């Protein structure tokens, strides 16, 4: 699971980097010469929001998978009980 999380984080970071670079002149000086200083906070906020979005979506997926597994187990137990009942009824004279 950790490997998938790391891959997702790396892919998102690369995507964000490409998104930022695509709108710029491909020069690192442009990032350092952002006129309104508060834009650094906006960029930082976007990155932090993306991180927390990925983090919480992975946690939600894990909870959903556990719930689905639990419900699937209950369903399989019911099927097994039905099979046993049918087997008992078919064996009765």
Automatic annotation (TrEMBL):
Species annotation: Alkalihalobacterium chitinilyticum
The protein's name in its UniProt record: Sporulation YhaL family protein
Bilayer-spanning residue ranges: 37-54
UniProt keyword annotation of Membrane present: yes
UniProt entry keywords in alphabetical sequence: Membrane, Transmembrane, Transmembrane helix
Pfam family, one: Spore_YhaL
Domain of life: Bacteria
């Amino acid at each position: 699971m950790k490997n998938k999380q790391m891959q997702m984080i790396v892919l998102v970071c690369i995507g964000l980097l490409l998104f930022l670079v695509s709108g710029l002149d491909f020069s690192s000086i442009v990032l350092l010469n952002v006129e309104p200083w508060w834009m650094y906070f906006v960029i930082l906020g976007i990155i932090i929001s993306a991180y927390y979005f990925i983090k919480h979506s992975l946690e939600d997926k894990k909870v959903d998978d556990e719930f689905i597994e639990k419900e699937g187990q209950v369903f399989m137990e019911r099927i097994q009980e039905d099979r046993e009942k049918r087997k008992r009824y078919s064996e009765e004279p």
